[in-house]
TrEMBL record:
This is Alpha/beta-hydrolase. It comes from Melanomma pulvis-pyrius CBS 109.77. It holds the Pfam family COesterase. Keywords: Hydrolase, Signal. InterPro entries: AB_hydrolase_fold (IPR029058), CarbesteraseB (IPR002018), Carboxylesterase_B_CS (IPR019819), Type-B_Carboxylest/Lipase (IPR050309). It comes from the Eukaryota. Residues 39-525 form the Carboxylesterase type B domain.
Amino acid sequence: MFLPALLLIHLSNFIYFSTASPVDEVPRNPVADALRATPTARIDAGVIIGTTTTVQGATAAVNQFLGIPYASAPTGTARFSPPRPPAAWNATLDTKKSKSSCIQVFREYLEEIFGGPKETESEDCLYLNVFSPRKEWNVAKPSLPILYWLHPGGSTFGNIAQPMYDGSHFAALEDVIIVTVQYRLDVFGFPQSPDISNLTERNLGLLDQRAGLDWIHRNIKNFGGDASRITVFGASFGGASTDALVASYPADSEPPFHAAILMSGGYAWFAYQQCNDSDYTPWTTFANALNCTSLECVKGKSAADIKAVRRNQPFFFGPACDNITYVQDPRLRKQAGNFARVPVMLGSSTGDGSYFIAVVGADVDAYFTTFFPGLTGLKTRAMAAYPIGSGGRVDNFTQLSEIHTDWNFRCPSFFNAQDSAKFVPTYRYLYNATFPNTRQTNPNITAIWPLKYQGAWHTSELADVFSTFAAAYPSVDAPPEEKALSDIVRGAWAAFAKDPEKAPVEGWARVGGVDTDVLSFGTDGESGVGTVKDLIGKCNIWKDFLEANHL
């Protein structure tokens, strides 16, 4: 049954899609009723139409609006320009399918690890997806909290079409709205060109993320969301982007979000974040490969030519320290309390470093020469603190994996949490679960990363957060233990979004000087949950290095 379009538009200003009549005498099935109508919403640029799906165990269906433009296409003369609002449309816009990914480098990583998707890439990629519970609500007083997802990928790859980031289960089972956003990547998102004198305009990917936040504030009421209850959450570079948002808003400001979740990624305390925005060697090398000497020349090249050049270049295009979207001194700001005063939840995984060792190799001397050149004293202290034969370290691979996990992820999270906890409610977690379906069995991967080394690898918790293990890992069924843990993890993230002042899990203490203030998801490597002692001693080994190599 389809209601007339004008009536739907009128109703959307008051109650979002009630298909039951107030004079009905027969009890109605809300899920069945929801499926009788196609979800439509009016946003500031026009009317959109989506789809509805059901989730086992949920009391409400879920409306999916996929591929909503939150900015105009950054193509042609708009390449390397800040995001601009999309042009309004008159006809109803179909938002039933995710749009193209942003152009990226190392896309093969996604396809190897997660099996796709193999959708097209395009510069026209500034879209977001909205997953909202299908239920009655008063548009004058929307109440649902929103979780705004910033995907991982090191600022070089990633997209929201990954089956792992389908927000349907999360939205339906926890009564929240999930918004996932695409942002420009690599040189398209972070063009560190000397011809761009305004450093903020070199951080287009971060500006895209902020434009998505602004879209939520303008439009989320039309999906039942309360714009005063936005939690930004992200993993890896998405976590760093989230932390960059937290650090960039002064303590006396009103940030456009009310809480933040940092998952195996952060900005404050993360090593090698020195600001050197006048080193144009990567850009010059890139432009020369295109036979260009100016930004205008690069603008005139095809996206395919740019991607082809970038595939063969080893250097990195990331954010510039403009002190607006990406501040120069996040650690010092945190310690001084000059950051967004919002509750924070942050954590890491026990095997965050394992894949990186698979890539760089397990030669101890080569590893320390690469990451800590000249720091022989640090090497000596580290080798003494992480001896083979104890703590599960059986060889150089497991030894270096733990070392890389600690200085790159777990200890920055520890110090970041200690700084934040002095000013805002802060909760810290550790993900320590491993399940058969998350093992990477592709021969191309196991050749360098054998199954025995994988463990709770970097971002492996995402399928449990979104409860998308069936879609993310379709070849092996999720065991009951993972489903049980997913209910706890997803519930914790949702509870924090709903009320970040309260403990997301009963018994989870705020960070604040107690050495057992870390909640472990998977204390037994599976579904157990409990508190664990922190790594204060080991993290102190890395403290001086992290401080010296951040600014």
